[in-house]
Structure formats: C-alpha cells, structure tokens
Amino acid sequence: MNNPNVDPHSTRQCLGCQGQVPDVEGPVHPYMRASPGCWQWYGELLSEWLTPAAPLELRMLHVDCFAAQHPAGAENDRRQNQSVAVHLTALCLFHEYGIAADRIPYYRKRTSQAVLPRLGLPDWPHLREPDFSGTITVSDLYHDRRTGETRLGVAWPRDCWQAWAPHHSTVRRWAEAVLEGTA
C-alpha cells in the first residue's frame, strides 16, 4: 500500500518494507534492514503509539510488524533469524490462536526459551522474506496518522502476518511450542 501521494524526489524505497520513506542519512537498527527514513518515521510513530489512547494492536504488536517487515536477509545472522521467528510467532499467536494483544509481550519473551528445546532445533532457521509491495508499511501509517486515522495501524498486524503466508505452517509449529511451553 505504498502511498502514491509521496513526492518521489525526496523519498526512496525502504530496503526492508519497500515503503516510500524520506531519503535521509541517519541511524538505523543494528540488524534490521531499514532505511534511515523508515527508522526515523517508525521512531516518530512509536512515541504516539505508546500512549493509552493508541489502539491496543498498535501498542502491543507494532514491534512485531516492524521487525517482520525489516528482515536483514542475512541467512547466517542468528540475531536476525531469531528476531523474525519471535515476531512472526507473536503475530501468529494473536491472529491464529486468539491470544489477546496485551498478553503478546509475555509470550514473545518466552518464545526462544520454549521453541528451540521443544522442537529440538539447534538454532532458528532463516525464513526467506516475502515481497512486501502491496502491504501496509510504516510509510502508510505515517501518512495515515497525519490525517488522524488509525485504521491502517489496526490492520497492520494482519496485513504483515498475511505477507508471510508461505511460512505459516512453520510459524504455527513454533506458536504451538510456545503455548505448550508456557502452559
């Protein structure tokens, strides 16, 4: 859902989510593949989402969406593989197992402790990232917020989860292991 109203002369496509973001220099996450403009906009949005007035999905699932949409593509980067696994598992627990959004942080913290030993995995596998074109991105949320809307923010977790459909069966196994390991 890349925003067609963005001036292409001052923006660039984010390396991760593929949204149109400011073409700026600046800091980025240490192991997520996000352009500086996307990281900047996410930080601005984050300050608004961490208030009680923000929809619960934004307050609890924003980090899962951002992490899942900004995989580093580094097959041998353990941090990145773990990050994608943990955040996709959180989205799966929310959408497919009905775990309330305010309980997701509890399960997110326990994912690595529960999944690897239960499934006998030595480490997290690399999941090939999908094409995020057509999905809701930080760019869409940034522009949505300027109009006072939050509908895209509420839809972001489902949209992000659906983008990873080729890996749903793998992530469901992880979610089941988390639920078994935390019961």
Keywords for this structure?
two-stranded antiparallel sheet, 7 helices, mainly alpha, 183 residues, DUF5946, single chain, globular, 3% strand
List the helices and strands and how they pair.
Elements: E1 11-13, E2 20-22, H1 36-49, H2 56-69, H3 78-96, H4 104-119, H5 138-146, H6 151-163, H7 168-181
Antiparallel strand pairs: 1-2
How would you characterize the overall build of this protein?
The chain is mostly helical and 183 residues long. It has one domain (11-181). Helix content is 54%, strand content 3%. The chain contains seven helices and two strands; from the N terminus they run ββααααααα. It has helices at 36-49, 56-69, 78-96, 104-119, 138-146, 151-163, 168-181; strands at residues 11-13, 20-22. Strands 1-2 form a two-stranded antiparallel ribbon. Strand 1 and strand 2 (20-22) form a beta hairpin. It is globular and about 50 Å long. InterPro entries: DUF5946 (IPR045990).
Helix content: 40-55%
Largest sheet: 2 strands, antiparallel
Figure out the total of helices: 7
* Terminal CA distance: 38 Å
- The unreliable regions are none
Oligomer type: single chain
Order of strands, widest sheet? 1-2
Radius of gyration: 16 Å
Structural shape: globular
Helix vs. strand class: mainly alpha
Number of domains: 1
Please, what is the average pLDDT? 89
Beta-strand residue fraction: under 5%
Total strands: 2
Name the helix and strand elements from N-terminus to C-terminus, one letter apiece: EEHHHHHHH
